[in-house]
Amino acid sequence: MYRINRQRRRMSLGQYPQVSLADARAEVSAAKVSLAKGIDPQQGKDEIAASETVGQGLDLYRDLHLANLKSGKNVELVLRRLLEPHAKLPIIQVTEKDLVSILNKLRREKKSVALKRYKTNITGFFNWCHGVQHLIEVNPAANLSLTITEKKYKPRKRALTNDELASVMKAANGLAYPYREALLTLIYTGQRKSEVLGMRWSDLEQSTWTQSDNKAGREHKVHLADQLQDLYLHMPRHLSGLMFTTNGTSQVWFGTKLKEKLDLASGVVDWTFHDLRRTFGTRLAEMRASEDIIGRCLNHSPQSITGRTYIASDRRDEKIELWEMWANHLEEIQKETSTGPDAVPLRSA
Known about the structure:
Layout: E1 2-4, E2 7-9, H1 21-36, H2 43-50, H3 54-64, H4 72-82, H5 96-108, H6 115-131, H7 144-147, H8 162-172, H9 179-189, H10 193-197, E3 204-205, E4 208-211, E5 220-223, H11 226-233, H12 256-266, H13 273-286, H14 291-297, H15 305-310, H16 316-338
Antiparallel strand pairs: 1-2, 3-4, 4-5
Helix pairs in contact: 3-4, 4-6, 5-6, 8-12, 8-16, 9-13, 14-16
């Protein structure tokens, strides 16, 4: 107990043995020095206690800033995943060293190409907390550009062969729910990973998945082949409405461990989940599908003035025909693999 400004206050030193006797004595001595100078020894602690946590800061960032951006949902998912270890930490206690540690971890996981984007997301969040909302007086991300270097981005050109794709699908069938269903949805539809993992039951109506929140910022209707609809029949439904979740409240994420497991099971290396989207477009082009319809299935904007301005139709029937062509192709390459001399029966999910 101590008195300051005619008020009695209680100061907690922590619990033994988490706080040693020597540390407790040192804190008492420092408190006495502060009191002698007329300073409340708990002033700094009160500020920390009143500070928003990193998680609460992300909530504000989502509601007041990201909600206005078409890429806001993806940015929020990335930030929550990167900052998850610090989610309950008062935001004023986050240091530059903490942020450098996060990015260095990604570098060790061989995600150097993504460092620039991740760094931009982190810097944007803390700049907003500092310069717009004034949640922090010192911006820990202010000098990240001086401490982090990233590789120059080079667009990938990797598309899986039919044999590689069949092997990855066989490995996918050996995954547990919901990773099996999510990965097969990625392969059958050719959609972006973030859009697939964020799917909700309310977005589905019979054989149509309607995207209202995606990178392109426009509604996009995706045809779901019978194979996917059969998969979904056996999936549990959670109150959150999320299709691919393990805890019922947050969507799953395709991380490094899952990718390593797939590499080992399939024997296919040097590929990314986004390469599956490129494979969708590449193999369909080899099957002489229209480039314009492929682009529309991928939810890309038409490149010609005619397509952008003078064709109001979304060419729904042609897109459905293409997705069905792709589903039949996937069935064929799996049959060819399963009837080969080295065929291995699929594991049940």
